[in-house]
Amino acid sequence: MATTSPTETTGERVVVLNPVSGAGDHPETVREHAEDYGYDVLETEEEGDAIELTRDAIGDGATEIAAAGGDGTLNGVVRGVVEAEALDDVTVGVLPCGTGNDFAANVGVTGIEQGFEVLEAGERRRIDLGFADGDPFVNSCVGGLTAESSAETSPALKDQFGTFAYVVETLRAIPSFDGIRLTARLSDADADAPVWSGTAIAVLIGNGRRFPPSGSTQANMEDGRFDVTLVHGTGSVDLMETAAVERLLGRESDQTSRYTVSGLEIEVQEADPVSFSLDGEIIERHELSVRNEPRALTFAVGERYEPIPGGEE
Ligand SMILES: Nc1ncnc2c1ncn2[C@@H]1O[C@H](COP(=O)(O)OP(=O)(O)OP(=O)(O)O)[C@@H](O)[C@H]1O
Fold first, then answer.
1. Domain with CATH 3.40.50.10330 in the chain
2. What are the residue boundaries of the DAGKc domain, all occurrences included (predicted)?
3. CA of 43 to the centre of ligand 1 (A)
4. Rounded to the nearest whole angstrom, what is the distance from the C-alpha of residue 187 to the centroid of ligand 1?
5. Are strands 91-96 and 64-69 parallel, antiparallel or unpaired?
6. Rounded distance between C-alpha atoms, residue 296 and residue 103, angstroms
């Protein structure tokens, strides 16, 4: 693993830099600003490095860690903080250098330089953290036909639909899809736990984001709850048109069920396990237990971040 240390840094403020995220044209800009703002830069060399670099940095005294990459890099940093048992000691920030930068936008961070400004002077908020069988996610956990097509998913589509773009892309690529038979036991402190059972195209669990047909995707990240959207049915829907996707995710759609819950247990009734994407990092499971740890992570947020997003009902 390559490590570079600009002069006069103390190891307390660290950037974990993924040099290959997004278009890969950001490392120099990140390094320049890191030097100006007094951050050490730790560069990943291969998958999974962000976790170890973060853990080691915390061991060396880091208290402020910025992820320069996409959602996957941020997920690695958060996982490193969790593994170091340092959730109460460390502030995490994001420098958007990925393709979609979905989470960064949801916390009001829109560019590298502005990201450093937010780290320097932005508000710190305690935000909810999702855990899927113990693995953390900040933005979303998406199950279904999501993993296989991520490489081909176009940046334009990712910009428009975020993580859901993977589902759309996969359904476009295959003529028919039988769906996944599953049971989801939803739990919440102040509601009867509903149980959903049926055939689903996708299970969309948003922590930092919601999955609306259009408009702002920022979720309430401080309420201890997830926005869950179950998309029913099979791949026979025509998803070639943007309008069809918007209808599919729309509030009136009879192909979606929406819940706001603090956790859920998913059981897949299929021979093969199902892929779940935790902020873009893929795991495969027949069963998955998802829970929300309220306000577990200290995050540096931009001015556009709204604790209670405007569009929320
Ligand atoms: N040096 C590296 N070489 C190859 N892969 C890496 C390296 N560093 C990190 N990775 C991997 O790159 C993957 C993608 O990272 P990330 O999600 O941050 O970027 P992205 O996919 O371009 O952006 P977004 O998630 O916003 O679409 C992660 O799974 C991570 O493990």
1. 3-121
2. 8-136
3. 12
4. 32
5. parallel
6. 16
Does the Cβ of 100 fall within 6 Å of ligand 1? Answer: yes
Ligand 1 midpoint to CA 122 (Å): 26
280 pocket-lining for ligand 1 (C-beta < 6 Å): yes
Architecture label for domain 3-121: 3-Layer(aba) Sandwich (3.40)
Kindly state if the Cβ of 96 falls inside 6 Å of ligand 1.
no
Give exposure, 86-121, as e/b (b: 16+ Cβ within 10 Å): bbeebbbbbbbbbbbbbbbbbbbbebbebbbbbbee
CATH architecture of 137-292: Sandwich (2.60)
What lies within 8 Å, CB to CB, of 4 at 6+ separation is 31, 40, 41, 43
Distance CA 263, CA 265 (A): 7
d(CA 29, CA 66): 14
Mutation pick for ligand 1 pocket among 15, 17, 20, 166 (CB with most ligand atoms within 8 Å): 20
pLDDT of residue 186 exceeding 70, the answer is yes
In the chain, residues under CATH classification 2.60.200.40 are 137-292
Summarised one tens digit per residue, pLDDT across range 242-280 is 555 566 565 556 678 888 999 999 999 988 888 898 988
The C-alpha angle 244, 158, 45, rounded to 5 degrees, equals 155
Q: Is 46 in the pocket of ligand 1 (CB under 6 A)?
A: yes
